[in-house]
Amino acid sequence: MKFGVVVFPGTWSDVDCFDVIHDVLKEPVEYVWHKDTDLSAYDCIILPGGFSYGDYLRCGAIARFSPVMKSVAESVEQGKLVIGICNGFQILCEAGLLPGVLRANDHLQFRCQWTDLRVENQSTPFTSTLSEGQVISVPISHGEGNYFADPETLAMLERDNRVAFRYCGPAGEVTSEFNPNGSMNNIAGITNAQGNVLGMMPHPERCCDEILGGVDGTAIFESMARWASGDRMQKVQETTA
Amino acid sequence: MGLNDERIHMSVTKETLDQLAISDAEYEAIVERLGREPNELEVGLFGSMWSEHCGYKHSKPLLRLLPSDSPRMMVEPGAENAGVVDIGDDLAIVMKIESHNHPSAIEPYEGAATGVGGIVRDIFAMGARPIALLNSLRFGPLTDARNRYLFEGVVAGISGYGNCIGVPNVGGEVVFSPTYSGNPLVNAMCVGILKKGELVSATTGEPGHLIMLVGSGTGRDGIHGASGLASRAFEDDRELRPTVQVGNPFMEKVLIEACLEVAKTDHFIGIQDLGAAGLTSASVEAAASGNCGLDIDVALVPRRAEGMNPYEVMLSESQERMLIVVKKGHEDQVKAIFDKWDLDSTVIGTSTGDGLARIRDNGEVAGEIPVTLLTDPPLYRLQGVKPAWLTPLQQYDLASVPLPNASASEILHRLLASPNIASKEWVSRQYDHQVQTNTVVPPGGDGAVMRIKGTKKGISLATDGNGRICYLDPFVGGMIAVAEACRNVTCTGAEPIALTDCLNFGNPEKLEIYYQLEEAVKGIAEAGRALGAPVISGNVSLYNEAHGMDIYPTPVIGALGLLEDVSRHCSTGFLGAGDKVVLLGSTDLKGESASLAGSEYLELIHDLVAGQPALDLDLEVSLQRACRRLVSEGVAHSAHDCSDGGLAVTLAESCIAGDVGLTVNAEVSGRWDAALFGETQSRIALSLSAADLPKLERICVEEGVPWVELGITGGQILMIPGLLESSVAELRDSWQGGLPKALEYK
């Protein structure tokens, strides 16, 4: 079981993600340069945060053409786990591996702050060590995290239980007051139809150590590791059946 | 071709000299030392290198007064791009603060953004990974639309650039005063870390090495930035817009990674960033450092504008460019690293043994000057004159200030909501302060705290500088800037081990301004020595004036503190109910009018800037030592220094941060406004459990520091019986709402 952390020019959460897998989970992990195309060694792939290619043109719009992204799409088909965090979420949307887009925050400013997230779906490979309705604290750091999708897509996401996390208050209340960027339905993270791709704007790798103010992010990476090292094949068969 | 080329005899126009801010006397000195008339390109080189910004003509003699004796220091101040201190564990911290005031006054977004970019390049040029940014900002009052535009633009520029390069922005200050209207101060500080053996020098080394230019193409942006913009007074800034550079933070981020990759190899001799005066100062300074000459051909420089002449190429301040001095024969290996990152890298010349800076254009010599002439500008040591208006201001009878009509509670709320004291969350939440996952205490307290991964250690960082106090007494103000910056990191438990200073002053050719500069530097030197913190790097920004008015003298001090055990740190918020709160240091609770000198209260409520500020340096040193022991020995639950707004504001901030009330039971007497809002120095409000009072007593006796018990935490009300009573929620509303309200955000 091995994690791969993809590095695009302009990525900056690569080291943070690497350190969590290596120091907190104590699992094998390697960096993957964006021009590499062989992902066969990895069971879990992390597309970290940052400003790939400066986010010029549109967030993630250039990075989706990096050679590694074709291999990421193939890995998704093979049932491997792919998590896109912040810029990684934006890249997954641009690449069509997740539906919808991330627009500029409704207040048009960058926001770096702690947010509370309600776990909406406990049955994904990314949330299995969390419980449904649980509120976790995870920081955001983005200027364009305002999730948008057309009404049909949004309805489908809700119907198929593909919203993984929503911004909420400390008691789990999902209201606009606690929405830091204007995202539709307070969406903070979604999964693909097969359930093996998660995109989320908040940064779980920033809250895996008490001294940084919280450890709620650890559960997401632990869920991935557990799923990937355990009953992965069974899950793939279930989800693709 | 040699210097007989016809074009060399082009006359240098008066206009050129003006653009370069070269005086007639300086031009004569150039002719005399060179033994001939320089051509236009050569005058450009002199103008850049002899500018106030690069040459420190008015400040260098004064900067020698600053303390630079510490066993931790690894390079001489000014010898490299930034200062370096040993923190043990085979690690060193690199840091520097730098101004980008004039560009930000003209184009706030790009001015501030490129200020961040410039200081970050100074850090990674030394082989250090940038791990923290801080910004010390000054603007005119937000009641003025232009000031709001500058403030919002500067914050957006810092956010836009800093967030993109993945370096956390962990602190700084924002202060508003009419003195900065039209001339904001934008001081950016960057801190980096490296393994001690990996320190990189900005030198050409011996003759025969290759000079490689990497990063962005060279355009016409920023020509005369160093000489014209930052080195003289100007009438109407808006004309100077083309001299402001445009930043590309993505390019910077990639440059950081590529240069740090090169820095780990042995294919190079030195790395130098291109900052003020672009290729000119980068190449000349590197050559001077290696006691070499240099021979470069501007035709080889990759351009992004057509038809640029040698003068423009040499003086361009296009951003995101670095100079790498590559060992001859290793250029392919270095180029391969830059190729990997899709960056241009071009060998443009060599270091030479003849001591001449030779600039060619397509092989033909376009200019040729001894390097040592360029790096040896005339220095001006003036005789400062104490301004005639200063003594009456200092002797102002503060006892004649009437007690206010409003209640203490009303005044506390006004102070908490005033933009200078109010929460700066509106600013800090626009900055990524967590990336790299080291930020233990985020912005908003006294000092930020960051862990050093792989060790038990941590560092604390803060900036401070009170222009109003310096205006009233530049010597005492200089001391207080150092004392407060050190006190801020001390409150986290960290020991101040190094300082970096940014000296923002008006026109030094005026003797009253020179007096301010000289006195402030002496004050910084005295306090730095007393507190054991050397000034390891810095920057001088002069000619800060608008509409004929000089700014307040504003030295900004950045402090680096070291925590041996990062798990033993404090922040400003009370930890919960039932703790004792004590005041350490200057503990007299009898309000004296003298403490109102230069206070925020006096200006906000009485519209008065007057009085004689004071600092007892011996008490300050003992206080800080005692406070650090109280934190490191696990006694203190919180510690917060008393500064702007005085004791009442300090206590209110600790209540807000800890979300708990406080009942003061100590007797407050004398002038209540002075007791609550006076700004006596050398005070720290600290909380601890009652059981630890004997330990506190022992440590304070050992360190010779007075202390007094103020009260006990609990409930949700800050109460000073008979004087002040307010709920924590109301205090928080005023404090958090102050800045958004001032910006008319609803």
CATH topology of chain A, by name, is: Rossmann fold
Helix and strand sequence of chain A: EHEEHEHEEEEHEEEHH
Got a strand count of chain B? 29
Say which CATH homologous superfamily of chain A is assigned: Class I glutamine amidotransferase (GATase) domain
Inertia-based shape of chain B: globular
What CATH calls the topology of the largest domain in chain B is: Phosphoribosyl-aminoimidazole Synthetase, Chain A, domain 2
How many separate domains of chain B? 3
Structural class of chain A: alpha/beta
Report what the structure shows.
- The complex is a heterodimer of chains A (241) and B (746).
- Chain A is an alpha/beta fold and 241 residues long.
- Helices cover 25% and strands 24% of the residues of chain A.
- Chain A is built from six helices and eleven strands.
- The longest helix of chain A has 12 residues, at 218-229.
- Chain A is globular, with a radius of gyration of 16 Å.
- The model of chain A has no long low-confidence stretch (mean pLDDT 95).
- Chain B has 746 residues and is α+β, with helices and mostly antiparallel strands.
- Chain B has three domains: 5-53; 59-374, Alpha-Beta Complex (Phosphoribosyl-aminoimidazole Synthetase, Chain A, domain 2); 390-419 and 570-746, Phosphoribosyl-aminoimidazole Synthetase, Chain A, domain 2 (Alpha-Beta Complex), CATH 3.90.650.
- Chain B has a seven-stranded mixed β-sheet with strand order 7-9-6-10-8-11-12, sandwiched between helices. A seven-stranded mixed β-sheet of chain B has the order 23-26-21-27-24-28-29.
- The longest helix of chain B has 21 residues, at 145-165.
- Chain B is globular, with a radius of gyration of 26 Å.
- The chains are: A alpha/beta (241), B alpha+beta (746).
- The A-B interface holds A 9-10, 12-13, 15-16, 19-20, 49-51, 53-56, 109-113, 139, 141, 143, 203, 205-206, 209, 211-212 and B 159-160, 163-166, 248-251, 253-254, 341-342, 428-437, 439-440, 451, 453, 566-567.
